[in-house]
Specification:
Elements (H helix, E strand, L loop, with lengths): L9 H16 L5 E8 L2 E8 L15 E2 L4 H14 L20 E3 L9 E3 L6 H5 L16 H9 L15 H8 L16 H14 L3 H13 L19 E4 L9 E5 L20 E2 L1 H12 L3 E2 L2 E2 L3 H8 L5 H11 L3 E3 L4 E3 L12 E5 L3 E6 L4 E7 L10 H12 L4
Antiparallel strand pairs: 1-2, 1-15, 3-8, 4-5, 6-7, 9-10, 11-12, 13-14, 14-15
Helix pairs in contact: 1-11, 2-6, 2-7
């Protein structure tokens, strides 16, 4: 698929500005940083403040919790190791994580934890990347099934939001996880999130480095991502935004309440475990450096950070038709799954909007790169999502971004 357009219409960008400003002016979100790009035409909007009641303007280099936008960065780390010849996506996970060799599998999701059968094959690295390892999010209330209760008792934080982060390190997390059976046979079904948790630990073992050290050496430094990390040091906390969640629980849309503070919250010191499933912080320009590298087939400033083949594997759909249909309630009717992010699924006629590869973060962040129309959009906010349905500011962002494309 090739882009049909290059650049934006000035009047369309003015409408984008006005639509985004409306959501900040109304108090629905404290602030936002947005970027739209088409070819060499890159446009940025920054509104609001770092926190409610803060009179200081939000800076372009403000630091946001990017939540599940961390996941594609983990996938890129895996493909860097593939390019370096350290791993293959066909490798069994047990080669690096022997705790996960010789898995048992629940006879059914309703089964007790002892009602299991042997795994028919090992979990592979590609199973982690495509979220088909046999374990992950269950679309049911907590404690509906025995496996949910067991996961919660272990404190793994992998069947829901990753905060508060577990107080133990990666080896302890893996040892606890290894006591649980899988929910399905490896490769059989797409389930969200847990693949990224395990992937981070595999990257540490395969690289022989702490996860943040590996990512910094192989991705962040080559891309100039100076503010992307698993924690925010004291000297940068003045740029770190406050995170909010609407009151009212799941589906809530009430008054914003503080979820995390910059100087005393979960990111104010290095964590016990670097969690690539959802715990990176970043800035608009840092994340754009990562995204633009993918859009450019792995290149950044003339340097090949990832091979074109690795980028192609990351950004194409790997699901079977049956897996795609089963995951539609979560991914949507037109999306497939690449490596740790959504990928363009098959469509008939004009693709929907937005369409492409990218993902959303539960803290209020979103990115999509549309290979058909040549459009990339990134929106970072401080308002957490409380529903699978996109909030109004996401909808307005995408509508205005597409409308701004020049004919």
């Amino acid at each position: 698929m090739t882009a049909a357009r290059r650049g934006f219409d000035a009047a369309g960008l003015s409408r984008l500005h006005d639509r985004l400003a409306t959501h900040v002016d109304s108090g629905a979100i404290p602030g936002l940083a947005a970027l739209v790009a088409c070819g060499d035409d890159v446009h940025v909007e920054v509104f609001g403040s770092p926190a409610l009641g803060d009179e200081a303007p939000l800076r372009r280099d403000a630091i946001f919790r990017i939540a599940s936008l961390s996941k594609p960065i983990g996938a890129a780390g895996a493909m860097a190791l593939v390019d370096d010849g350290v791993i293959s996506v066909a490798d069994p996970v047990g080669k690096f994580l022997p705790e996960l060799a010789d898995r048992r599998v629940l006879r059914s999701l309703k089964s007790s934890l002892t009602d299991t059968v042997p795994a028919e094959r090992p979990i592979t690295i590609e199973d982690l990347l495509t979220f088909r390892l046999g374990f992950g999010l269950i679309m049911a209330p907590p404690d509906t099934y025995p496996i949910q209760s067991a996961e919660a008792e272990l404190g793994l934080m992998t069947l829901g939001p990753p905060w508060p982060p577990p107080p133990f390190g990666a080896d302890e997390w893996l040892a606890r996880f290894a006591t649980l059976p899988l929910m399905e046979q490896p490769g059989a079904m797409w389930r969200y999130n847990t693949g990224a948790h395990v992937l981070g630990m595999l990257l540490e073992r395969a690289s022989g480095q702490p996860l943040e050290t590996f990512l910094r050496t192989r991705l962040f430094e080559p891309l100039g991502m100076t503010d992307t990390s698993f924690s925010v040091p004291p000297e940068k906390q003045g740029r770190f935004t406050t995170a909010y969640v609407p009151s009212g629980g799941f589906g809530g849309s009430g008054e914003l309440v503080v979820m995390d503070e910059p100087r005393s919250g979960w990111w104010s010191a290095p964590p016990a475990m670097d969690n690539i499933a959802g715990m990176l912080v970043s800035t608009l320009d840092d994340f754009w450096a990562f995204v633009s590298m993918l859009v450019a087939g792995g290149q950044h400033d003339g340097h090949q950070v990832l091979s074109p083949a690795s980028v192609a594997d990351m950004t194409r759909d790997h699901l079977t038709p049956g897996q795609r249909a089963a995951s539609a309630p979560f991914l949507g009717p037109h999306d497939g799954w690449g490596y740790c992010m959504v990928a363009p699924g098959p469509v008939q006629g004009e693709p929907p909007r937005p369409y492409g590869f990218g993902w959303n973060g539960g803290t209020g962040t979103v990115w999509t790169s549309d290979p058909v129309r040549g459009l990339t959009g990134i929106l970072l906010t401080q308002r957490a999502m409380t529903s699978p349905e996109p909030p109004p500011h996401f909808v307005d962002f995408w509508d205005a971004a597409y409308e701004a494309l020049a004919d």
